[in-house]
Design a protein that fits this description.
single chain; 43 residues; mainly beta; HVO_2523 family zinc finger protein; HVO_2523-like
Amino acid sequence: MSDATETPPGRPCPLCGRSMARRHCKYVCPEHGVVYDCSDTFW
């Protein structure tokens, strides 16, 4: 398994609306980078 493994389009970025990729425990927006990670309790 690669660290760059992505799932199909998922949650929208709250900043721009683009689909974010899930990488391990983080949600990564292609425009804004890491937006959420597993330490965020509100997701």
